[in-house]
Amino acid sequence: MKLVFYFIYLTSVTCLYSKVFAQEKLYANEFPLSDVKLLDGPFKQARDLNIHTLLQYKVDRLLAPYLKEVGLTPKDSSYTNWEGLDGHIGGHYLSALAMNVAATNNSECKRRMLYMISELKACQEANTKNHPGWGAGYVGGVPNSKTIWSTLKTGDFTAFHTAWVPWYNVHKMYAGLRDAWNYAGNEDAKNILLKFCDWAINITAGLRDEQMQSMLDTEQGGMNEVLADAFAITKNEKYLIAAKRFSHKMLLDPMSKGIDNLDNKHANTQIPKAIGFERIGELSHDEKYEDAGNFFWQTVTATRSLAFGGNSRREFFPGAVAYTDFINDVEGPESCNSYNMLKLTEDLFRATPSAKYMDYYERTVDNHILSTQNPETGGYVYFTPVRPRSYRVYSAPNEAMWCCVGTGMENHGKYNELIYTHQHDSLFLNLFIASELNWRDKGIKIKQETKFPYEEQTTLTITEGFSHFKLMVRYPAWVADGALKILVNGNPVSYTKHPSSYITINRTWKNGDVVKIILPMHNTISYLPNVPTYIAIMHGPILLGAKTGTKDLKGLIADDSRWGQIPSGKKLPLDKAPIIIEDTLSAITNDLVPVRNKPLNFTLHNVKMINPIDVELEPFYTIHDARYMMYWMALSNAQYHLYLDSISSAEKEKLALEKRTIDFVAPGEQQPEVDHAMQSNQSRSGTNQNELYREAFNGGYFSYDLSTKKETNLGLMVRYWGAEWGNRKFEIYIDDEKLVTEDYTGKWNQSRFFDISYAIPDSMLKGKDHIRVKFQSLKDGTAGGVYFVRLVK
Fold it and tell me: Global pTM?
């Protein structure tokens, strides 16, 4: 009987094995999404809400750019706002549909996915027929595609540089087609993808290596990654060669040598490049690419990431001296960055299944990704402000087509992707999320039951089958050494491993076996990188935050304006925010009092505070439609006295400056500008940081008449904002005589004001009781913004 049973068992497993691997999976260690079912909990709720949100978007509007560029008649109008980057959301949307088809078999997602693929196939065929010189295989919605790509093919980048990141744009559809095949097994999508890859190879075939590198100075998304994936699908070396040609040496070379050159670089331009490096390294075993991907991940997660896993401010990696920008600014870490860092983490874990990767993955998914969905509307978040008492802004369906709307569409469809992975005869339990696994190769089904993080345990039950394999249980970094407990059928498992590792349970598993894992959580402090006076409070892997009110949440649900993703309500003063006073910061973790019958909620009643607030700490991902605290200023008693002294000193300096001031004008304010006889052309005023400013552009100017009181030995003091965009080179004149050429383009990269003084030669002042100070912009440049102008002794 045993022999007959084993024969039946092996025959069934062989059939299942052939069926699964006929799908040509790209990632051999991952289970198909259809084989991992989410059970009730916050992740399933987020996934289901996201499907509801996805189905509110209009597919023909997403497809309109593709039909327009090929010369076909769109069936609806294109989206506005960021769909000036026409087509980029369409690719993300296709990816999201494919994921949900695989994970849930949702019929409407499937219908829409198949419809999109049929329309895209028609576009590709029409491009091949109508534009054989440049468009054979092309399926993109980039505005002005014909001019951009036909001229780029010849080495003329004029149209390419005037367009909005064309390669970044088309990359989203490359990824969408790949995902429609990889997740949903659609062969048409694979064929369209490979023809599209051939187009990329052909359109760049005539470019020299120097021209390719120059082209890659413009954001290109993950083009090197998708071309490497084409190699993985076909084993055709031409795609691997192309992937390496699309790899930016500006980043590849230093990263492969362990050199961090990320300061002041656009974060989400760099992260996808590193994903491509890792993918190329994984498939080709080229150590240079492997080393670059590894070091990039290490330096970003170790030195450039915040407590909730996100990185960047104002979309850029700050230098060490500029990390206070996280506190001063409201443009905090971008959701797209975490989306891409998770992809890089997934790739690295596939090559080397180390627990450190899953520690980061869990922290970022639980705290950043889960928090970027409005639990009522399903809207997506672009920036997550770190500034105390700020708030997040959410998108609305069919409006505000930001990059983070695109990645947001995908984020909530992938929660089941890495809960379990496998390698050889080992099953890795990576994440503690309620779910069911159907491990077809082994004929095993496993159910994971947990309310984690609201309970400190999870239970795995073998619900079907039997097989011999190693169960690799993740020992999280946030569980204390020796505190993890594992019981198999009630019997404790002994181990010698330490936190951030995997514990191996090697045995024959059978129906009814139960594994119980006890995961004690405790409170810890996480410091803001390079700003040790600001701390976050963690409970296990969960970031704790506090709601601080709902006043002036201007733009909470974004409109369709270009900058609607940025919270525009009043910035509340930093010095009025709560300040924790504690000589031993570790004591704070012991002073939190759990709230009865409310898991993961704590009071701060035992914590000494200046500007105290009566709030509860709760998981940050549950805070929505409100202002919040995530990082807190925490000072010792001595530091607090120094802090008060610094405020006093600043006030004394302010009074001393006022005594030195001969005359001043506040640009942007009507009466002061009238009082100082302002003259201007091609000039505008605005507000930033609750301060008014004026700037001139494209050869324009503005000027003021200032009193000298017939004094000499004077200086001109001008206030600038240290985090301006664009070309800020301009000239300053005194009575039409040039005083100085100023250029602060990328000079400071800090979110604070800088008061810059210029000595005025006495020859420009002698015998005058008034002078005219003029700020003259240059062609294609901006003079200012100027926030304050003073004549000082």
Answer: 0.90
